[in-house]
Amino acid sequence: MTSDHPPTPDAPLDLAGIGIGPFNLSLAALAHALPGLRTAFYEQRPAFHWHPGQLIPGTTLQVPFLADLVTLADPTSPWSFLNYLRTGERLFPFYVAERFHIERAEFDAYCRWVSHQLPTLHFGHRVDAVRWNPHHALFELDHTRPGTDGRPGTTGRAHARHLVLGIGSAPHVPAPLRPLADAPDTPVLHSADYLGHRPRLLTAGHVTVVGSGQSGAEIFLDLLRHRPHGAERLHWVARTPAFAPMEYSKLGLEQFTPDHTRYFHALPQPVRDHLLPRQWQLYKGIDHETIDAIHDELYRRTLDGGWPDTVLTPGVTVRTATRTPAGRIELHLEHRHQGSRSRLTTDAVVLATGYRERGVDTLLAALAPHIHRDTRRRPLIDEHHRLVLDPAVSGSIYVQNAERHTHGVGAPDLGLAAWRSAVILNSLTGTTAFPLPARTAFTTFGLVPPQPAGRPPGRRDRRDRLARPRPPRRATADPAPRA
Fold this sequence. Notes:
The protein is α/β, with parallel strands linked by helices. 25% of the residues lie in helices and 19% in strands.
């Protein structure tokens, strides 16, 4: 719910959210159904958009439509994808289409539909600083609303008992290519900006795609389909030893369930750090349909004889990159297994090199002394997705998609969005606002499965929990993860 009066020390928010991507949008949608819970979410962008540069026509989500913002926690929510279809009188066409995986553009439109109706969302608000006020036992958020027509922006301050960070991830540009990507008018771009540059890339003399994940495959396929037969002039290189399929078997997908999340969180830190990079095919591979479509398109271009003018080479690292006097891009490549090196001259480079979690340290600089960390200086995060803080800070700071090092490969996965939102709201309210299943997978991860994380800590009345600051955590109530 929301309120007309501003969040002051005398009337603070129960929860303030920073960032409005799909994960905090999920939390806002589920929180809206809880009477008496006062929330507000702030986002510096003027409106909701989900990876607009990668909404290539025909590309689909890699999770079923049931992995919407709310359904896996509350199928009766008015913010479900099915209700979005019903409201737009498209439910029967969807039923006839028999689509289990929807297009990305439709997921973006669904999320925007939800964002337009939730009064707790505040777009065009940039949160500049976060502090803990020990006198009021509240968090203070300073925010700015950019002005228009060159006028200065307005500033404001909100007070909240608890925070949730959903600041998302940022495009990752490898160090050797960063100077060229940052240079103006240089055709080296991240896949996040692909659609905005697509017309230029379709007419470029030669294009190189770097990166073997789903985004790289989709961009290579899109370019291949729209460049002339016999003159495709496309290169696709990647560090991985193969253009490998994503793990999509049913038992394999159980590693994206709450059961696996609880199992992973309970492992010692060195074990988690060893395990995570070895699970790359769970989230860095390419779906079978896209791999097949690329091969089919390449094969069609051999029907009249000859081979398409394309080169697909895995196992390759870009060592350095320079701009030639003629304005082209020269990539210095190394094949890891052969130990060989070569140079590739191209007219444009698309970096499908993934994303990295945005660190919380800059935003929470004033709270840095109070954040507990592991041996690699990463924040400790408990099973309820809260930063582990000193007892001097009695409020909670929840995080979304910043906990892969503690919660595993499911942290950025849309399929766990609603479940994680429910875990956070159960923890926040001290109630079972959203009943969660005790078991979610046929696989038993470990010989001694950990306890479900959806059970709210403590037994205080929900109104008492939100009306007063929490006392300092006892060592037996919310133990820090083993590290």
